[in-house]
Amino acid sequence: MSMLTPPGMGGKYRITGDKYPRMRRRRRGRLGVALVASVAALGLVGWGTLQLIDLFTGGGAKASAAGPKADCGTKASPSPSSVTKAAALPKPGAITVNVYNATPRSGLAKDTADELKKRGFKIGDVGNASKDFDKKVKGTAVLLGPPSALNTSLTVLATQLTTAEKRSDTRKGTAVDLIIGNAFKNLTQKPAADKALAALANPNPTPTSSRKSC
Fold first, then answer.
1. Can you say how many angstroms the Cα of residue 133 is from the centroid of all Cα atoms in its chain?
2. Alpha-carbon distances, residue 67 vs 52, 60, 70, 73, 87 (angstroms)
3. CA dist 55 to 47, 58, 59, Å?
4. What per-residue confidence (pLDDT) applies to 201?
């Protein structure tokens, strides 16, 4: 009988030397597994927290590395190109307009030319349209000029007849044509035309994005 066996219990309940160490190793293994599981759970909680922060803040990748003050809102400022383009448009007094009548109605070219003159335009030739346009313009009018006039002189002239069609040809010189079509009744009313001219001279600035001080 071993010295560790309590008196009266005999050899049946003998505690051998190799069982007790195995029980200690089993407890250590369980503690290791629990520790790993805890670390993994904390990692998942931290990752989920970061995802929620990104969701409600719009994502941290877009934030500036310089800090919150570097990510201030922006404000609009006038575009220099819009101011330059407006300044390049000629005044009505610098535009020579030839007025041609492409309809069977008589007197339209002269009456229209007289009204344009009152509105500040220079008048060139006045008469019937050439055979290329005579009785072939179904709309209100065709505004015709060199390619350079499409966004300059013809744009200014179009304020006097907003429904007219703009075209270009291979002519020399800067004079432009107003060819009256079958649907023509009269020029745009002067108050509306003056308002359109003013809008060309002072267009709304094109907003551009710029940083705002914090």
1. 40
2. 20, 11, 6, 13, 42
3. 12, 6, 6
4. 86
